[in-house]
Amino acid sequence: MQVLDTESRIRQQIADNPVILYMKGNPEAPECGFSRAAVAALKNTGQPFAFVNVLNAPHIREKLPRISQWPTYPQLFVNGELVGGCDIILGMEADGSLKTLLENAPAQG
């Protein structure tokens, strides 16, 4: 079995999961207010999403901002593209575009 370096592992996670949130904590127990707000917005869409707890993955926490060009957490990726952080997620929830975006993402498998 090949061991992936951190960047390859991140790119694989993003490719394998149509909707993935890199966050602090997990959806049942977010460990910062921004992650809590992002999870609430995602749950309100009723669509499934994957997550990575960056507090348990320090190499990912350190490397992802260089890959995504986004400095803070949480970070939401849909269909391999960075959507943004908490403010963007909440704005999209407010205008209805988050639900539409997630409904049109392939089903989580």
From TrEMBL:
Keywords, ordered alphabetically: 2Fe-2S, Iron, Iron-sulfur, Metal-binding, Redox-active center
Please report the organism this UniProt entry assigns to the protein. Answer: Stutzerimonas kirkiae
Specify the Glutaredoxin domain's residue ranges.
19-83
- Residues that bind [2Fe-2S] cluster, according to the entry? 32
Primary gene name: grxD
Give the similarity note. Answer: Belongs to the glutaredoxin family. Monothiol subfamily.
The GO terms this record gives for MF are: 2 iron, 2 sulfur cluster binding; disulfide oxidoreductase activity; metal ion binding
Record-linked InterPro entries: Glutaredoxin (IPR002109), GRX_PICOT-like (IPR033658), Monothiol_GRX (IPR014434), Monothiol_GRX-rel (IPR004480), Thioredoxin-like_sf (IPR036249)
Q: Which residues form a coiled coil?
A: none
Q: Which SUPFAM superfamilies match?
A: Thioredoxin-like
**Looking at the record's lineage, which domain of life comes first?**
Bacteria
Entry keyword annotation includes Iron: yes
Protein name, UniProt field: Glutaredoxin
